[in-house]
Amino acid sequence: MIIAERKPFEEITEMIKGYKNILNVGCGGCTSICLAGGQKEVNQLNAELTKENAELKIDSFVIERQCNYDFFVDLDEKAPKYDAILSMACGAGVQFVAERYTSIPVFPALNTVFCGVDRNVGWFEENCRTCGECVLGDTAGICPVTRCAKGIFNGPCGGTRIDGSCEVDPDTPCAWTDIFNRLTEQGRVDKIIEVKPPRLWQNQVRRVLIQEDYKARYAE
Amino acid sequence: MSDQEKKAVDRAEISKMLDKKAPEMKRILNYCVHCSICAESCFLYMSHDGDPQYMPSYKIINSLGKLYKKKGNVDHEFLEGIKGMVWNNCVLCHRCYCPIGIDIPRMIDFTRSICRSQDVFPKLDEGESWL
Predict the structure, then answer these.
(1) What are the residue ranges spanned by the domains of chain A?
(2) Under an 8 A CB cutoff, do A35 and B116 touch?
(3) Superfamily of domain A2-114 in the CATH hierarchy
(4) Could you read off the pLDDT of A111-147 as tens digits, one per residue?
(5) A&B contacts, CB < 8 Å
């Protein structure tokens, strides 16, 4: 799931300065679940904004997903009535809204932080950098890109502390120590000595994925 | 949230929302022939051993269908009752197939909008979840 958090209030007020009639659009997907951009958070932000500026007219609306135009039917009716839109979706959703209503300024109310898991209510942890070349099968289900401070594919590095923590931050467990321990537990520690070639990180362009079965449909 | 704190249901607002979609809803309620073909295209129905509560047609007939028949004249308890059906029992994956062409996810989405308009939605920070 995509995890996001609300931008500082001052940053939001600065962005929308000068606009008097705004629609704050929440998202019923990931940002609802991570308690950053669902209906409750939309209402809360609007209450804070109107408290700050009594002249501001800001309405709330939540669509089930801002990353899929199938859910935009009702928003299509509402959006043109406003001078600006505040979106409480992830960066992908904000861009999709902006692409749909190009004549209306769309502002993000959230910072999209990472792709992660729910550890508990309101507690989320990053687990994936969506690098596009998953090595979890060789690393006992622990991502070296995300969890190693250096993102190294062949670890551990020389900076692992004796207690199994990372030299960069003593409160962070060394990902490669964890990988070693789990591979040992699974009886396949030999995996750790397989050298992985370096990855080409440069020249990254926007990725588009069309699943194999759908390639013919979109060929033109 | 106690009953006293709950926002009173604005029946006129629900009725207005329903009126706007009346032609679409009439079509759904009249044209659904209960063929159950949508059921087998729903992974939730299949993964719950064919529990009829997960049938896409069941979900709209028993949520939006009832709302429409009652002309929006419902209380908070009714909306809380259908909340599970439209959030927990459907992920809006858009994979359900209707041979007649009824847009089932659109109707679930609309039912959620009606619930949201009355402040009924999963309170995730209070331990509620969907799925």
Answers:
(1) 2-114, 130-220
(2) no
(3) Response regulator (3.40.50.2300)
(4) 999 999 998 888 999 999 998 889 999 999 999 999 9
(5) 36
